[in-house]
């Protein structure tokens, strides 16, 4: 009996709820991200359909409004033949989507999702800095992908991707750092604890929140903001030569990046697990706070998805102009605002 | 025979244009199988992100319509020419019918003229909405795409009630039209126009006044008055450059001379002005529809076919028109058997109308046989396509869809 | 009163107002339709449009009325209609004789309706539906027998009929046939409404129901 109990404890504590594994694979990692993708893609289609005089996905499961449409789509992608063109550079061509997905999930390893010490995946002292730094890695592989594809459209798309990423990741990083300036800490646990009293940083510093929001919207290339793979002149940009599951990975990559950033936004600006105070215990101390954060992040993503039906695509130079001429001064202003608020002790 | 392409010697084959690329440019082929090109190819040479040479390459959907027309009876050419732009079917075939009517010496009666005008305006709205929808999706604005196509359905439905077909109406025939409007048509048409007026304001809010879209369109692809006239641009694109030219204004045909409406002329000549010109034209077309429907309601249902054809009609034809035969429908104008073997007196005729995309010109020559000797078609898209070559260079590659879409592309029309 | 020119300019707004007013206007419209969607989609196999009489759908021949004048075959712009010589028993002359009757090839037909309009005796008519499936190209060339039957309306087997009516607020509004019937069964002005709907849905009586559907 005792041995079985020990096995159970080992499986639960040391494998499933072992923080690095839990966060990478379960919440908010791979499984949660998949569920979120399932929901968000459905929501995006439905919201767009509502605005656009349509029904959206419906036929797969009419009772629940076609919610499992993505499963059908994924099955299709998975069963499709993966065609590897002769002209591509095979190894980077195949590896880069896979590495991109893994790297896109990596920042989740760095964010603590509870204030209980035993459930930190890594020591949280510089977790904000590390998470933001890790989030800038995966776009490199989009550029690699475009180069390996050896296609004109892909190369143009890759160049655009690198332009956009440089500009907008900088804004995202600066925006997150203005939160660090306000709280004088890179520790996400500290940042969330400060917001426990209801003073969410997003409310104290809405400029930073707005800047980060726009930066995430642009840098993760969701539908109307997909300047690197804008369909009307670049077919599918860096992903032009991809088929089947590899293409599906690329499509999922954008959503995962967005999801990671949304988690960061929820933690830093929207109070993390705020109204709830984690108490020791796996469920109450780890599962519930991580769920609260996920739901907040989901709402952020839903708002981003809704914007798809209102806006069109910016031109690449305009997008860069907005970044360098408007948003970066705005983010610096947000940074100053944060400093000022910290100085006058509003926080 | 010199066959190597190395060095400066470039082989010249007849009908083939070979040009050398400079070292630091990059050639992108947009089309013919490209999500953003339609049935054409645009060869773009980019220097960095700036287009330096743009070469619209047309001809991918050429169907030899003019030649085909020479082997077909006069009336059979109407459904053929419709295939140039089925979404603008009445406008496209009307000048052909008018030209043949000139040769035959028949004038359509008054009611037929109003009915033709009505369907032409319905077609114009549907065609503009189609163009705007494509324009929207080119700019990544999927909502406008869906809205425009959804609202186009309203007008297609109106056209279907009038003519019995959604797109290929084949509505005007020599000497008249093929049907009269059904009884409940005026009511539906008025509701549709009122609805569309509201919708146009919403289009402006979500698309044309949306800062995102405005920044894409403003000062992009500016076509000056001089350039537009030099290139022979037609239609709303010309009027967006400030030129006051519209066939409905300069040479009123059908019932346009008796109707009061405005022709919107914009001065900027950029993509935004072209989009606005379409919106304003839709608004005017709605006014015209209202007026024509009023007129049709006030006037008795007679005179829809030329006397010459109608006076030989047996009683059955009148029964069909008044709906006496239960399976045959109502208000259908029967074609005379003589249409099948119509011989048109020798002569030359020329007719033009203002179609959705611009001036549509037909030149018809007959040598007295039952098939035309020559039919020459000049379609508006064909005249507009040259603008790409002059407007696009100097812009960024991402402006290509913004300019292309603003011209309301329709390759099947310019290829014929 | 001919047309007159109206000079216009792109609407101008000051830059700050444009950013705020424009964005908020766009978002508000988006939100309005998100909360109150205006759907016009036809859920096709589950619903189908009951088209009004006068729609140019499939064509049916009434052989008794045909006088073999060949006008329909001559005017057909797609050469879809051909005359076929068959032996028939002429009732008036009381003897067997060879007569020509039209048959149609739906591979070619473009549904222009010229043949129906030109027929001097109304021997041809349109049925108001157009969605049929043929198993192969050969089946689309109808025999004289098939040409006289109304093709089976396959979408009516699966879907429920709807009708689109115009509306000021919503453009086109879908009305299910059952709801329509309910409206009619209300006692107010019952007869009048019934009459009007009767006219709209006034289909030609099916001459013979094609049990086996399309020739297989
Ligand atoms: S509808 Fe037109 S194409 Fe079809 S058979 Fe009749 S005339 Fe020919
Ligand atoms: S036009 Fe009418 S009567 Fe003449 S052959 Fe055709 S179907 Fe028969």
Secondary structure layout plus pairing:
The complex is a heterotrimer of chains A (347), B (416) and C (216).
Chain A: H1 2-16, H2 19-26, H3 30-51, H4 69-79, H5 90-105, H6 127-135, H7 138-149, H8 152-183, H9 188-195, H10 201-204, H11 206-219, H12 231-234, H13 244-268, H14 282-307, H15 316-343
Chain B: E1 26-30, E2 41-47, E3 50-57, H1 65-69, H2 77-82, H3 89-104, H4 110-138, H5 142-163, E4 172-173, E5 176-177, H6 185-208, H7 211-217, H8 225-231, H9 236-239, H10 247-250, E6 262-266, H11 271-298, H12 307-310, H13 315-322, E7 347-355, E8 358-366, E9 374-378, H14 380-384, H15 386-391, H16 399-406, H17 411-415
Antiparallel strand pairs in B: 1-2, 2-3, 4-5, 7-8, 8-9
Chain C: E1 4-8, H1 15-35, E2 47-49, E3 59-61, H2 71-75, E4 81-90, E5 95-104, H3 114-118, E6 124-126, H4 144-148, H5 154-158, E7 160-167, E8 171-176, H6 177-185, H7 190-200
Parallel strand pairs in C: 2-7
Antiparallel strand pairs in C: 3-6, 4-5, 7-8
The complex binds iron/sulfur cluster (2 copies).
Can you describe what's shown?
The complex is a heterotrimer of chains A (347), B (416) and C (216). Helix content of chain A is 67%, strand content 0%. Chain A is mainly alpha-helical and 347 residues long. Chain A has one domain (2-343). Chain B has one domain (65-391, 399-415): Orthogonal Bundle (Cytochrome-c3 Hydrogenase, chain B). Chain B contains 17 helices and nine strands. Chain B has helices at 65-69, 77-82, 89-104, 110-138, 142-163, 185-208, 211-217, 225-231, 236-239, 247-250, 271-298, 307-310, 315-322, 380-384, 386-391, 399-406, 411-415; strands at 26-30, 41-47, 50-57, 172-173, 176-177, 262-266, 347-355, 358-366, 374-378. In chain B, the strands form three sheets. A three-stranded antiparallel β-sheet of chain B has the order 1-2-3. The longest helix of chain B is centred in the first third of the chain and has 29 residues, at 110-138. Residues 1-7 of chain B have low confidence and may be disordered. Chain C is an alpha+beta fold and 216 residues long. Chain C has a domain at 59-151: Alpha-Beta Plaits (2-Layer Sandwich), CATH 3.30.70.3270. In chain C, strand 4 (81-90) and strand 5 form a beta hairpin. Residues 187-216 of chain C have low confidence and may be disordered. Classes of the chains: A mainly alpha (347), B alpha+beta (416), C alpha+beta (216). Chains B and C meet through helix 2, helix 5, helix 6, helix 7 and strand 6 of B and strand 1, helix 1, helix 2, helix 3 and strand 7 of C. The structure holds iron/sulfur cluster (2 copies). Residues 76-78, 80-81, 104, 109-115 of chain C line the site of one iron/sulfur cluster (SF4). One iron/sulfur cluster binds next to helix 3 of chain C.
């Amino acid at each position: 009996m005792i041995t079985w109990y020990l096995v159970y404890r080992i499986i639960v504590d040391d494998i499933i709820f072992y923080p690095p594994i839990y966060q990478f694979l379960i919440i908010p990692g791979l499984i949660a991200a998949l569920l979120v993708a399932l929901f968000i893609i459905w929501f995006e289609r439905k919201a767009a359909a509502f605005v656009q005089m349509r029904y959206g996905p419906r036929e797969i499961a009419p009772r629940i409004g076609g919610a499992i449409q993505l499963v059908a789509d994924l099955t299709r992608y998975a069963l499709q033949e993966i065609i590897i063109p002769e002209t591509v550079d095979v190894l980077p061509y195949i590896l880069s989507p896979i590495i991109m997905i893994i790297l896109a999930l990596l920042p989740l390893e760095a964010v603590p999702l509870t204030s209980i010490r035993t459930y930190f995946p890594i020591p949280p002292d510089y977790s904000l800095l590390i998470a933001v730094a890790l989030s800038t890695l995966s776009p490199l592989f989009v550029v690699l992908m475009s180069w390996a594809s050896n296609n004109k459209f892909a190369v143009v798309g890759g160049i655009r991707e690198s332009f956009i990423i440089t500009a907008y990741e900088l804004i995202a990083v600066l925006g997150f750092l203005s939160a660090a300036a306000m709280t004088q800490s890179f520790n996400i646990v500290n940042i969330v604890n400060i917001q426990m009293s209801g003073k969410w940083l997003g409310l104290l510093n809405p400029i930073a929140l707005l800047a980060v929001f726009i930066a995430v919207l642009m840098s993760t290339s969701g539908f109307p903001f997909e300047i690197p793979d804008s369909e009307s002149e670049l077919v599918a940009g860096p992903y032009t030569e991809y088929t089947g599951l590899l293409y599906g990975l690329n499509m999922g990559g954008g959503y995962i990046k967005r999801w990671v950033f949304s988690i960061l936004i929820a933690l830093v600006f929207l109070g993390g697990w705020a109204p709830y105070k984690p108490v020791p215990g796996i469920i109450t101390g780890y599962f519930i706070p991580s769920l609260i954060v996920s739901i907040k992040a989901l709402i952020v993503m839903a708002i981003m998805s809704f914007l798809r039906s209102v806006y069109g695509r910016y031109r690449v130079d305009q997008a860069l102009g907005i970044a360098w001429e408007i948003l970066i001064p705005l983010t610096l202003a947000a940074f100053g605002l944060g400093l000022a608020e910290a100085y006058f002790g509003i926080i | 025979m010199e066959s190597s392409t190395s060095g400066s010697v470039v082989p010249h084959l007849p009908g083939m244009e070979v040009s050398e690329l400079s070292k630091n440019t990059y050639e992108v082929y947009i089309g013919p199988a490209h999500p953003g090109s339609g049935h054409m190819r645009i060869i773009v040479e980019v220097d960095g992100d700036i287009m330096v040479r743009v070469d619209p390459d047309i001809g991918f959907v050429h169907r030899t319509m003019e030649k085909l027309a020479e082997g077909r009876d006069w009336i059979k050419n109407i459904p053929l020419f419709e295939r140039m732009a089925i979404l603008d079917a009445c406008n496209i075939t009307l000048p052909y019918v008018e030209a043949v009517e000139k040769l035959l010496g028949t004038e359509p009666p008054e009611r037929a003229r109003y009915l033709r005008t009505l369907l032409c305006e319905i077609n114009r709205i549907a065609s503009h909405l189609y163009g705007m929808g494509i324009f929207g999706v080119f700019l990544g604005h999927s909502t406008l795409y869906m809205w425009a196509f959804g609202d186009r359905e309203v007008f297609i439905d109106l056209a279907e009630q009038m003519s019995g077909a959604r797109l290929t109406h084949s509505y005007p025939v020599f000497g008249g039209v093929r049907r009269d409007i059904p009884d409940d048509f005026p009511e539906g048409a008025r509701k549709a126009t009122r609805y569309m007026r509201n919708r146009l304001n919403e289009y402006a809010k979500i698309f044309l006044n949306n800062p995102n879209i405005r920044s894409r369109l403003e000062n992009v692809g500016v076509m000056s008055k001089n350039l537009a006239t030099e290139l022979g641009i037609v239609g709303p694109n010309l009027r967006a450059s400030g030129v006051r030219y519209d066939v409905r204004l300069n040479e009123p045909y059908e019932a346009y001379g008796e109707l009061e409406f405005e022709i919107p002329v914009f001065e900027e000549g950029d993509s935004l002005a072209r989009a606005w010109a379409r919106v304003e034209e839709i608004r005017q077309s709605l006014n015209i529809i209202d007026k024509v429907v009023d007129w049709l309601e006030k006037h008795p249902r007679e005179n829809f076919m030329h006397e010459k054809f109608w006076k030989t009609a047996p009683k059955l034809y009148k029964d069909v028109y008044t709906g006496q035969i239960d399976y045959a429908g109502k208000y259908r104008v029967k074609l005379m058997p003589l249409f099948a073997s119509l011989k048109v007196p020798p002569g030359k005729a020329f007719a033009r109308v203002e179609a959705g995309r611009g001036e549509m010109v037909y030149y018809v020559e007959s040598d007295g046989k039952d098939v035309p000797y020559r039919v020459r078609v000049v379609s508006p898209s064909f005249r507009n396509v040259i603008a790409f070559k002059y407007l696009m260079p100097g812009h960024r590659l991402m402006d290509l869809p913004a300019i292309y879409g603003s011209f309301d592309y329709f390759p099947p029309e310019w290829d014929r | 009163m001919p047309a007159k020119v109206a000079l216009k300019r792109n609407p101008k707004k000051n830059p700050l107002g444009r950013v705020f007013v424009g964005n908020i206007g766009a978002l508000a419209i988006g939100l309005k339709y998100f909360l109150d969607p205006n759907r016009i989609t036809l859920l096709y196999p589950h619903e189908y449009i009951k088209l009004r009489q006068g729609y140019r759908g499939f064509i049916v021949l009434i052989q008794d009325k045909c006088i073999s004048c060949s006008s329909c075959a001559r005017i057909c712009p797609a050469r879809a209609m051909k005359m076929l010589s068959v032996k028939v028993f002429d009732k008036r002359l009381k003897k067997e004789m060879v007569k020509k009757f039209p048959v149609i090839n739906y591979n070619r037909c473009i549904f222009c309706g010229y043949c129906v309009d030109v027929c001097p005796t109304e021997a041809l008519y349109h049925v108001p539906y157009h969605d049929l499936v043929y198993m192969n190209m050969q089946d689309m060339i109808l025999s004289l027998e098939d040409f006289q039957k109304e093709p089976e309306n396959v979408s009516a087997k699966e879907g429920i009929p709807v009708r689109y009516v115009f509306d000021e607020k919503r453009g086109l509004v879908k009305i299910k046939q059952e709801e329509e019937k309910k409206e009619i069964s209300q006692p107010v002005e019952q007869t009048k409404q019934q009459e009007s709907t009767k006219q709209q849905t006034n289909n030609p009586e099916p001459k013979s129901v094609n049990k086996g559907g399309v020739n297989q």
